[in-house]
Sequence to fold (140 residues):
Amino acid sequence: MLQDATRILHAQGYKITEPRKWVLQTLEKTPKPLSPYEIQDILDKQGKHLNHVTIYRVLDLFCRLNLAHRVLSTGGFVRCTLSDNIGCHRFMVCQHCGTIQEFADEDLCHEESNFARNRGFHTEYHLSESSGVCSKCYGR
Fold:
């Protein structure tokens, strides 16, 4: 992810600062959504000190560039696992283990935009996630 993120940041005119690198590395190592305060705690334990305002700013940038996403049901942030996949990025969140599966579906994105357009609404961005039980937890 760090190489892809570096390429995307540079292409958009941003530098790879230490805070951005640290947050990227933290998201890369953790498959579950993290709040900015959890990211701050992880970094503090590594001797890397960032205040939560800086972390929020970094996460905001990453979300705008599709390097990370905010998970609505938890309020935490995860790294984007799909990079340049076409379609709106969606999540399936397991209520038991917290695992998140990210997917993109171009047809679903178009269908939702058409649905909105037919009701006089112009969609600029889609947010969607499904909450349930993953295949590993199902039937336990």
